[in-house]
Amino acid sequence: MKQLAIFGRIxxxxxxxxIGLSHFLMTPEFLTKLEHSLIPGSMYTVLLSGAMxxxxxxxxxxxxxxxxxCLWLAGMLFIIITTIHIPNLFxxxxxxxxxxxxxxxxxxxxxxxxxxxxxxxxxxxxxxxNKQE
Length: 133
Known about the structure:
Helix content: over 70%
Low-confidence stretches: none
Mean pLDDT: 85
Radius of gyration: 16 Å
Strand content: under 5%
Order of helices and strands: HHHHH
Distance between the termini: 15 Å
Shape: elongated
Structural class: mainly alpha
Number of strands: 0
Largest sheet: none
């Protein structure tokens, strides 16, 4: 069972590393979506958040400070969901004519980050309870 937990931890971290790396390869089209976020200086915070995602994932893979990294990741994802994804959804809903493909993409991004938020909280909880047993 321990090998399964290690494998799951690595499978969880690898996509987050890929997402973090993608923050350094953003196209101008993608960056325009950030104009509707509630984060000031959002163009520059993309690089910072990408680096933070990579650092958290490396700690998770190396099994060092995993609980702190997962809670940090959960906090970041909560901020991203509430300040970027939800305002972007409302912006898309206000556009005329409504573009269903943009709405579907924005909804999938929101749901993806919500699932990652839940998974990071579960990993942090599991590690805490596993140490007590």
